Amino acid sequence: MSTAVTAESDRLRSASRTRLLASRPEFGAFIGALVVFLIFAVLSILRGDVGKGFLSIQGAASFLEVSAYVGIIGVAVSLLMIAGEFDLSVGSMIGAASLAVGLLIVQFHLPAFIAVVLTFLFAFGIGAFNGWLRVKTRLPSFIVTLAMLLILRGAGIGITRLLTGNTIVSGVTEASAGDPIVPLFTASINIAGGEFKIVLLWWFAAVAIATWALTRTRFGNWIFAVGGSDLAARYVGVPVNRVKILLFMTTAASAALFACIQVFSFGSADVLRGANKEFEAIIIAVVGGTLLTGGYGSALGSAFGAFILGTTQLGINFVGINSDWYQVVLGSILLLAVLANTYLLRRASGTR
Amino acid sequence: MKLSKRIAALGAAALIAGACNSAASPAASGGGGGSADRSGILIEVVTHGQASDPFWSIFKNGVDQAGKDMGVKVEYSAPDTFDMPKMAQLIDAAVAKKPAGLVVSIPDKTALGPSIQKAVAAGIPVVSANSGSDAYKELGVLTHVGQDEEIAGEKAGELMKAAGVTNALCINQEVGNAGLDARCKGFTTGLGGTVKVVQVDLKDPTAAQQSIAAAVQGNAGVNGILALGPTGATPTIKAMEQLNNTDIKVATFDLSKDVLDAIKADKMLFAIDQQQYLQGYLPIVFLTLNKLYGLQPGGGQPVLTGPGIVDKTNVDTVLANTGTTR
């Protein structure tokens, strides 16, 4: 859009290193994560908890584990939101995928490997259907995926009760013992007295791949383009529909991954799993610097957003604050993060 | 003369056959006749128990089985979330069907009271089940079938105290449920020690487990944990395994397979069973007999189904019936 002259003047404009750093979308989330960590660290020191609780290796392993779970869906939802869409069905998808993998193993006696493959295929199918409905009907994704939220949750309850007469599928650990695929979801490593779960690796890998895809590939450019302006992207030849459908498939797959890790680690599935996680994923994306309107955001930022969420949730218990207040703290952080991000974005664009 | 003798003989035969039947299979028990009329008896059940809750699955099994055993028609409904206005509407809708009897749970008497009173005013006998021990008398409900949560909590506290617990956490997985608050309150009384309430999310077992582990580390000197339900108990057991802590005594309200396995493996001291199968089953029996013969439990006292204690001594019997009646 810009002429050669303005591009030239943009290129020549000098900006300080700190200002460049501060104009990155994940900068606010990074500072937020640091502040949240320091607050709980100071509270722990005041309690005399050094080397135990929050400020211990095991403590870190605990709050990182909680962060990692929500981080996996958070990063996928961030990509989708950068492309200007919502997926409210991820929470229900977690529930449905948990039940799918649990029932396939316990009820249908399938090997864990096949159950996992089928569950991912199911998730890809639902994601593709969400995306297809969105692009074909032109209905807002908010509505399409809200409908899917209800359908998946209800079908999960209905089918599970029909098959088992119960709403919990237990006995997954026993039924899948010895299957070579299980350690992929349950392995853990002991580092200096802290038990770090493999879910962390999945999270890091998801964030790394998403960051690479977003900043280094053509597909990443397409995501920003689609989120910036659907129509303009279409005019310059971006396969808008394909991008959107693929991203809906990614969020559904992230929910399936969340479900597999949780079901194999916990040994059971139940029909309530994952409820409200759709909101946590949106919180993570927004705190991480992704705009609700699309076109702007960061995959790395979602990692900081997830870190803030997990750290706050456990930190409150570690320092003995009454857990009744968790949601107040979380809501306040969300508000502060959005205000900070908007301010930073305004400053960043104001430098132009 | 001859005819009446034959009728008498037939009646006797029918009685004997009926008695044999009822001994062999309760489902076929016609008793002293009248079984033919029973299929026309409709009993409506409205609870706050969402179909997704494993606890209520067992309750509903009791309702369904009692319907079969009594030979009456039962219809069960519940709001899809803990939504009292919606539940009041469901009660109104059930009353509109003019059933022979109505079973309701009353978690909130202010919200549900008017609808229940409407049913009573319309001449429909009502029995409350599960929650409502504080409300059933004033609303004109025939009787209440359930567990007094505070008494049950006290029992849990006494058992914990006997096991040497002085400082405990109370894991609340469903904030906003007054019954759970009463359990914690009774527990505090029974224990006579320090009790701190920890809130966890029943929909996210991983976060719940880590929250409980964090709370144990954040509250020095904790030597007992009472979970208020299986969705809090399983993460508690996992948290104890994670911390490698076998000194802290763990107990819970209500049963699940995980809970029973933990009792068997000495990872959990006991579970308080409110025997919700009875809460689903008995009201149907009461209302059927009330419709047929005008019978009703007397004395105006609630029918208590709990606290039943499940510990190492009886866990095998309970395990054999898990998911159906326990």
What does it look like?
The complex is a heterodimer of chains A (352) and B (326). Chain A is mainly alpha-helical. Helices cover 72% and strands 4% of the residues of chain A. Chain A is built from 16 helices and 4 strands. In chain A, the strands form 2 sheets. In chain A, strands 1-4 form a two-stranded antiparallel sheet. Chain A is globular and about 65 Å long. With 326 residues, chain B is an alpha/beta fold. In chain B, 48% of the residues lie in helices and 16% in strands. Chain B has 12 helices and 12 strands. In chain B, the strands form 2 sheets. Chain B has a 6-stranded parallel beta sheet, with helices on both faces. Chain B has a 6-stranded mixed beta sheet with strand order 7-6-8-9-10-12, with helices on both faces. In chain B, strand 3, helix 5 and strand 4 form a beta-alpha-beta unit. In chain B, helix 4 runs parallel beside helix 5. The longest helix of chain B is centred in the first third of the chain and has 23 residues. Chain B is elongated and about 60 Å long. The termini of chain B are far apart. Classes of the chains: A mainly alpha (352), B alpha/beta (326). At the A-B interface, helix 4, helix 7, helix 13 and helix 15 of A face helix 3, strand 7, helix 8 and helix 9 of B.
Give a brief outline of the structure.
The complex is a heterodimer of chains A (352) and B (326). Chain A is mainly alpha-helical and 352 residues long. Chain A contains 16 helices and four strands.
Keyphrases for this structure?
heterodimer; A: 352 residues; mainly alpha; two-stranded antiparallel ribbon; two-stranded antiparallel sheet; 4% strand; globular; B: 326 residues; alpha/beta; six-stranded parallel sheet; six-stranded mixed sheet; elongated
